[in-house]
User: What shape does this take?
Amino acid sequence: MKATVIVRLKREVLDVQGRAVERALGTLGFEGVRDVRIGKLIEIELGDQAAGPELEERLRRMCDELLANPVTEDYELRLG
Amino acid sequence: MKATVIVRLKREVLDVQGRAVERALGTLGFEGVRDVRIGKLIEIELGDQAAGPELEERLRRMCDELLANPVTEDYELRLG
Assistant: This one.
């Protein structure tokens, strides 16, 4: 079983790294880039644990306690 | 048009950050986590540019020139 957690900065938080990439792309000659946001993709290998509400609950706790900062970030959980 | 670039460390490259998260999850009492890999999710807003091979080619060049390090990272491109 594999779980994927996508962690994104909340919309209202300035993405400094994204802004720098946006500017660098312009400098390199890539036009038409309106916005760049950079998030994290966390891939967790869980071995032979069965999917289900209990596993999902554990993964949510992992996100809340360690993987995402609830003040500045949102996360999205994908199982399987 | 929105493009998403997923940048992952190559399999053979040690993921130090992932290893630290794996260990921290164990310390917090989450058992059964076999492996954690941490990548980047880059979301690029391209305005009203039309999809097609030309746009894809431009995005590949962005990845090769700026977004991914070809020595240590692989990337995956998703359009739309």
